[in-house]
Amino acid sequence: MLTRTKRDYLTLRGLSRQELDMLLDRSLRFKESRRRVRRDDVLAGKAVAMVFEKPSLRTRVSFEVAVQELGGIVSFLEEGQVQPGKREAFLDMARTLERYADGLVLRTFSHAIQERVAQAVQIPVINALSESSHPCQGLADLLAIKEALGGLDGVKLAFLGDGNNVAKTLMEACCRYKIDFRLASPKAFFPDSEFLESLKPEMAGTMVLTESLEEALEGADIVYTDVWVSMGKEPEKELRRRIFLKYQLNLKTLRLAKPNAKVMHCLPAVRGEEITSEVLDSPCSIVFDQAENRLHTTKALLEFFLANRP
Ligand code: CP
Which domains does the chain have, with CATH numbers? Predict the structure, then answer.
């Protein structure tokens, strides 16, 4: 009989600062130990099911490798195979998978469906991206910043472009760390007011939303950007390309930040749109450290949410 003592990871705010600190330390230990040995038995006897409605490289591979290196079994199910909501109801699929697996990793368009699944099943649900949140990416980003700058409190982070799920997740990090977050974006692409209001009672850092690149970038230690056309926004492609052009991260815009500022991007990138190759491939870029960290932080998340359950 399964117990109800489970936790889900649907947003970065699902974790306290103490838990985030612990997971970052644990991720670093996984990173360090992988240089010597790749096998662990943290997930021995555990199975993880992954259901993705959208394409993925980093999230899929980092989860598959992480589960296997931790001694577990992983089953990846593409949208075309399972057809949640078409072949069968999303909740029926989830309630079936919980009978086989010890954890459910979901990449969906809708965030609400992940909340409903988390309510309906007795195994932990991990959000591998939804329209409003990308908490697995967020943890890897925090690790990359900590490694590059030595800490998180006091960091000035400028995000250029769409106030999307990645931007929102970084804003949630301001609820746990004293990060000075500044979004440079056209007003129409600021995150919704309901989300912004929900952050206020928990804010540890500060947040500025501005249309001015100069205001966002002044004194920035980190300059972060993401694609202008997120998955699902393809019908707005031409409009977005026009609107976001002035927020492109190129050598000229990078000069508005601190001289030694680091550049971040969650990938995949559209070179020549939101970021130029000169910047992405420059010594300032920690983009591939972020990508690598997806593996180490995923191990820490799997251990935390799945390993110690009956
Ligand atoms: N950053 C990220 O989530 O990459 P994928 O979409 O390739 O998984």
Answer: 12-133+293-307 (3.40.50.1370), 137-290 (3.40.50.1370)
